């Protein structure tokens, strides 16, 4: 009998999402969960977006605008581009998958940093492409010189993903570093700059991806409404790029891929300057507090430009990461182990509300005290 699918598809591993609140409550018998695993906005959702959705509910029987005209127009105004340079996606995950479908075939090369967002790797493998993974530096920064060398040595390189800031590390490169990288690679290679956490970046030389897109045609910028705008449940993101690339990308979209509720929420959220300012200000205030608290407890914290921290257990912590994770779950705290990124002693923690951050630090004190005393892992 013929194989059902191509061999590269049977080898795919599914995306593993963060543990949901409801499942944790059932499994561990806890309430008042602090979910610090998925980098959601601890301040909630943009109030303007929520109001816009409520006003739209009585029209939920109608199909959405398949072209997302109003949302595209607002994004175009926001970034000073024309709507024809924009494609709207069901979150940036859909756009990542579509870019891989558009640009990669069996035998083509995807150059990627590692560890970086796992969906880049998954998108390439779905197409049967060859992935060349360039390790991060010892400080978890992108090795842009190494990426350029890999691209130039692999003549079939079609696509490069750059997460800036990077997930799961939180590290960020500058605009000058990006321009120096782009000067070293062929103009026909498509470079995707994924800026899921761009609103949280606080650098003097922050990347201006739109300016790069306007200067270099085969460059694509990705943005999401899931983080700073608090629209994770709505699943809406967008790509900005050259008209040739965007036209082809738009043809691959499913019809009505973004709901009416998501479209009106995102359109309104772009006007909610006050909410984004509060989100960023909260993050700027609480990230150093949480980082310092973690470091004071002997943990290794990677400096971050995002609303999360990557935290690593030292060798002498007295507890392994799976045991620590269970102990925190029993205390109604969800963090995100990142062993699937090749970091078996590291976890990612979202910058939460002030009381959630303190709950985490207090829980770590108890867990480490139990570990020193030889108590069973995960004791409540």
What percent strand?
15-25%
**pLDDT below 50 for ≥5 consecutive residues: which ranges?**
none
- Compute the number of structural domains: 2
Helical amount among residues, as a percent range? 40-55%
Q: What would you say the CATH architecture of the largest domain is?
A: 3-Layer(aba) Sandwich
Specify the CATH class of the largest domain: Alpha Beta
The geometry reads as globular
Q: What is CATH's topology name of the largest domain?
A: Aspartate Aminotransferase, domain 2
Helical/strand content category: alpha/beta
Mean pLDDT: 94
- Name the CATH superfamily classification of the largest domain: Type I PLP-dependent aspartate aminotransferase-like (Major domain)
Reading side by side through the largest sheet, how are the strands ordered? 2-8-7-6-5-3-4
Separation of the first and last Cα atoms: 53 Å
**Count of alpha and pi helical runs:** 14
Query: Tally of extended strands?
Result: 13
Helix and strand pattern = HHEHHEHEHEHEHEHEEHHHEEHEEEH
Largest sheet entry: 7 strands, mixed
Report the radius of gyration as a whole number of Å: 21 Å
């Amino acid at each position: 009998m013929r194989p059902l699918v191509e061999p590269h598809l049977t080898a795919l591993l599914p995306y593993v999402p963060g543990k949901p609140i409801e499942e944790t409550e059932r499994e561990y018998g806890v309430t008042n969960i602090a979910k610090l695993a998925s980098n959601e906005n601890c301040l909630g959702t943009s109030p303007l977006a929520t109001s816009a959705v409520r006003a739209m509910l009585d029209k939920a029987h109608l199909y959405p605008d398949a072209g997302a005209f109003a949302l595209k127009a607002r994004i175009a105004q926001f970034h000073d581009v024309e709507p024809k340079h924009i494609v709207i996606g069901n979150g940036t995950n859909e756009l990542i998958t579509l870019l891989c479908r558009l640009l990669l075939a069996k035998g083509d090369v995807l150059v990627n940093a590692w560890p970086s967002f796992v969906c880049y790797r998954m998108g390439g493998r779905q197409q049967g492409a060859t992935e060349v993974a360039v390790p991060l530096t010892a400080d978890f920064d992108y090795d842009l010189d190494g990426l350029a060398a890999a691209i130039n040595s692999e003549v079939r390189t079609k696509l490069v993903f750059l997460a800036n800031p990077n997930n799961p590390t939180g590290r960020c490169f500058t605009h000058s570093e990006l321009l120096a990288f782009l000067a070293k690679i062929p103009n026909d290679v498509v470079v995707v700059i994924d800026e899921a956490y761009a609103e949280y970046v606080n650098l003097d030389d922050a990347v201006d991806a739109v300016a790069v897109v306007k200067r270099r045609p085969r460059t694509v910028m990705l943005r999401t409404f899931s983080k700073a705008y608090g629209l994770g449940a709505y699943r809406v993101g967008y790509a900005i790029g050259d008209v040739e690339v965007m036209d082809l990308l738009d043809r691959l979209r499913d019809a009505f891929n973004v709901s009416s509720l998501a479209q009106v929420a995102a359109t309104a959220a772009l006007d909610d300057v006050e909410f984004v300012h509060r989100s960023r200000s909260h993050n700027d205030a609480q990230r150093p507090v949480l980082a310092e608290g973690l470091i004071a407890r002997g943990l290794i914290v990677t400096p971050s430009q995002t609303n999360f921290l990557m935290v690593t257990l030292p060798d002498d912590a007295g507890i392994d990461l799976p045991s620590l994770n269970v102990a925190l779950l029993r205390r109604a705290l969800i963090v995100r182990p990142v062993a699937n990124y090749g970091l078996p002693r590291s976890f990612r923690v979202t910058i939460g509300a002030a009381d959630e951050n303190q709950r985490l630090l207090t829980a770590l004190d108890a867990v480490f005290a139990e570990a020193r005393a030889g108590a069973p892992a995960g004791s409540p």
